[in-house]
Amino acid sequence: MEGSYDIAIVGGGIVGLATARELSMRHASLKVAVFEKEPELAAHQTGHNSGVIHSGIYYKPGSFKAKLCVEGKRMLWQFCEQKEIPYKSVGKLIVATNEAEVTRLQDVYQRGLANDAEAGFQLIGPEQIKEIEPNCVGLQAVHSPKTGIIDYGRVSRAYADDAKGNGAEIFTGAEVEGIRRDGGTNVLSTKRGDFSAKYVVSCAGLYADRVARMTGSEPSPKIVPFRGDYYVMKPGRSDIVKGNIYPVPDPAFPFLGVHFTPRMNGEMWLGPNAVLAFAREGYTFFKVNPRDLAETLSYGGFWKLAAKYPQIGYTEMYRDLSKRAFVAECRRFVPSLTADDVVKGPAGVRAQALDESGAMVDDFVFSGSQGVIHVRNAPSPAATSSMAIGKYISEYAVKEFAIA
What we know:
- By secondary structure, this protein is α+β, with helices and mostly antiparallel strands.
- The protein has two domains: about 150 residues, FAD/NAD(P)-binding domain, CATH 3.50.50; about 140 residues, D-Amino Acid Oxidase, Chain A, domain 2, CATH 3.30.9.
- It has twelve helices and 20 strands.
- β19 and β20 form a beta hairpin.
- It is globular and about 65 Å long.
């Protein structure tokens, strides 16, 4: 046995590292370890997201997303001030371009007020839209002045430094290949040997369902990977847009749609779309992992989802393959944008939990049994919410594991 710990955390993304930081800070007497399969931390969803500090406006009042996003952004601001990690409050417009969207926008606005009455959300008209974003058009918008941007990779590394400073150990290149119970202990078989831990917390992101199966937990919800491709504004044109511009979300579909997002390095990203990825780490159209793809295509929930939204699926795929179609969607908000203004950019893969009925699981999902806590679904705004999620899991662990 390579080592013995009180709590083993599977996954070195931002949620796993925030959890390690919180547990090691609250329970100094416990030995905590993080096991990350990649050579570096925050390599997948954390390292490929758009870097937005979300305001909490979209989410159903009372949901985990609503509560943990609002709490998490405040904790994150305070943490960044303490650690001198730069971030910017660039603001966001959620823009309605037709009457149907105007109606839905009212619901978004009311959710925002219910979730955080102090966030400064405002319902504004076309003239005020132009004052904030001179090149943007719309019938109505919600202005979220405190939406921000940050480098979540840097935040993750700061979490890791704090966790190690509190005595936690972090193992990279340590993919967990199996977990078995041995008496009252969990044995984790990794690429760096076997380790034992009284308790396990799985924050495995794209592999959350597989780690759950290792522990005998329910196979559903299943992770289905969706790739989101971005375009990047050419340097000479990046001033077309100042802050975040988002569409009004479709309540029937959990993805937020193509939007404009400024980056800490001065870039402006456009995207992402949402198409099925052929691999859980499928950051390009041509990356195929036979096992990953077979798991998706053999899952009845996926085919039920596809049957529910055939037109959305076709549209997203077409926009993924056609730059002209992608830019046309962006031009709904910024008509002066042209295809010559943008170049192909990076991509991310979202770990979307999908149940057997074909419903995309919208809220964060946590579960626990037999010495294990699972984070089964933690898509956006998990990065914004990360410190609040770490706090929630730590409190969950006190009850589930009966630790002092």
